[in-house]
Amino acid sequence: MNRRTLLMMGAGAAAMSGCASMGMDMGGGAGAPVAPAVRMPPLIQPRAELLQPWTGPYGGVPPWDQVTAAKLREAILEGIEIQRAEYAAIANNPEPPTFENTRVAMERAGDALGRATTLMGVMTQNIGGAEYDALRAELAPILSQAGDEITFNTRLFDRIRAVHETAEARGLNAEDRRLVQRTYEAFVRNGAALDAAGKAELGQINTELARAFAEFSQKVTADENAWTLVTDEARLAGLPDSNKAAARAAAQRNNLDGWAIMNTRSSVDPFLTFASDRALREQVWRKFVNRGDNGDANDTNAVIARIVALRARRARLLGFPTHAHWRMQDTMARTPEAAMALMNRVWTPAVARVREEVADMLQIARPDGVTEIEPWDYLFYAEKVRKARYDLDQNEIKPYFELNAMKQAAHWMAERLYGLTFTEVTGIPVFHPEVRTFEVKDKATGAHVGLWYVDDFARPGKRSGAWHSAYRVHETYDGKKTVLNSNNNNFVKAPEGQPTLISLDDARTLFHEFGHALHFLLSNVKYPSFAGTQRDFVEYPSQVHEHWVLTRPVLDRFARHYQTGEPMPQSLVDKIDASSQFNQGYQTVQYLSSALVDMDLHTRADPPTDIDAFERESLARIGMPDETVMRHRLPQFNHLFTSDAYSAGYYSYLWSEVMDADTWAMFEEAGDPFDPAIAQRFKEIILAPGNTTDRAEAYRQFRGRDPDVAALLRNRGFPVD
């Protein structure tokens, strides 16, 4: 099925921002019998090299070694024409509409184009550069128009509506009826029922948005491809040796003499935590938080104003009061009010906790002559409080978290919980020399499950953050296809010959993104359109897997000191456990302020034109503490402005965390983080079915009740009442 229709069905983008990421979890019904393959009419044979079916092992793999910007352009333009012809054949079929000749046929239409856009998505996000930036800028509006052609095709929609209205009479099973129902609703939600004038206007809006999304992404990426150069080593006092070495290597890669603090979170946060030079901390902090907001060629404020105005116009055209109301139709929360109710319940105790944290920091900071905690001081003095209160230094932890060992830990977790094995394979085409590939098998049967790619390290041109990407989803409707997917991180690579040590937060990020990959790899859906789930459910499986990082079995086997080989001592684990709720005010306020401002922005019928002023006023309305800043300020908020994916949806991490915390409590109550009965139920009910069943009902089936927010509040150390 073509990429746009997949988006409308709720599968999300092939690369999902969120986690800090852009990535998508896919799932299917474990143990379900494989249905006989549906006989599909032959599709148009493409000419372009990058439109051909993928060949090679594992059911075919992406031909990364053949990709160039010019070849991609050729492939996508031809792919659009092929897709147009394939949908025309469905819409103009002289036979009466049936489930098979209409909805099932749509699953396969656009496959060739989908292969090419998957390649383009990875090249623009993981590689970048002027050629791919230009390609995205040129093709984004063209692809948007091609998608609108499908949605606005009156004959196609008439056939979809006819199948929808007769689905029960035709005796379709529950899964097929759900596919028909969701397809019909998605087409209506995206303008299929508008009159000709309305469709023309909506098409224009969508095209302009596509251009704006590409522009925003390129500006932010350009602002992140920068650094703060330090030429006096004395100014790096307090910075761990591993971070100094990484900064030195970054400078050398950019032909600089000194140490480069790259303008990405993986470089900035450690600097703000450990560097004692307060003036330099402020300089690094300001450069980072002002990405996209410097009044220069990379300033994004005007782009954002254009995006929110177009979104508001589109919402009105589609009959919704605001963009948020339109976006949340197909979510678990359903309404902005429901999402706001949860966020407000957590916001008040989070702000109160920040006040307590600041008071604790000031006791340590005043002897340094610091009378007010500024945002560039927060991590630095919080680390000092942590050391004083819990005798815990983050530098004590890092030597136990060597990157390769923690990847092995994630694989072992997947084997214990779900019976998956990961074996590194070579000789597979990759898009960068640092990418590694692993074959995934079912341990019990030895059957091939999928191929997992890993792109771990930050580099110029690569977008920031961490995300999961889908190259191919599990499906059985037209012959079984197995999974191809990837995890993408931005860890700071150690100098040649040295181990890459990551922080505890980095380790959790690794397990989080791996949770997305597992959701995808355990998929067993019949139709690829059911691979994804609602935005406020999709982060749940990834977030819950973060909890296994600090389980004793994982630590004993894999958290071993990179020099001595000794496992992390229990005394250190006890310190980590004792401090588990430390700094939760800061972490919660940083995230939740971004989510609240997102919802405030997108629940306005008349959106603002001065984005900086709106951000300030919105933060003032919610009582944002002066001592910290949004995790993602609007001028660099990729989640919101590189696509519609997380717009009016950044709350979804918190919504998912309610289920995540409640699920982990279930394992804790069992007394075993690898309890086989719970793991099997989680796999079969939560991970495997994708969107073949209602996800709220699936959670109730798994847990025996609705999720309880109390578990989340307890995890963060906030009052439950």
Automatic annotation (TrEMBL):
EC number, as in UniProt: 3.4.24.-
Molecular function GO labels: hydrolase activity
Top-rank taxon: Bacteria
Top EC class of this enzyme: hydrolase
Residue ranges of coiled coil: none
The UniProt record lists the keyword Ubl conjugation: no
Record's keyword annotation contains Transferase: no
Pfam families xref list: Peptidase_M3
Record domain Peptidase M3A/M3B catalytic: where: 272-717
Cofactor(s) needed by this chain: Zn(2+)
InterPro entries named in the record: M3A_DCP, MetalloPept_cat_dom_sf, Neurolysin/TOP_dom2, Pept_M3A_M3B, Pept_M3A_M3B_dom
Cofactor notes: Binds 1 zinc ion.
Keywords: Hydrolase, Metal-binding, Metalloprotease, Protease, Signal, Zinc
Signal sequence region: 1-20
Family indicated by similarity: Belongs to the peptidase M3 family.
Protein name as it appears in the record: M3 family metallopeptidase
Taxonomy of the source species: Bacteria, Pseudomonadati, Pseudomonadota, Alphaproteobacteria, Caulobacterales
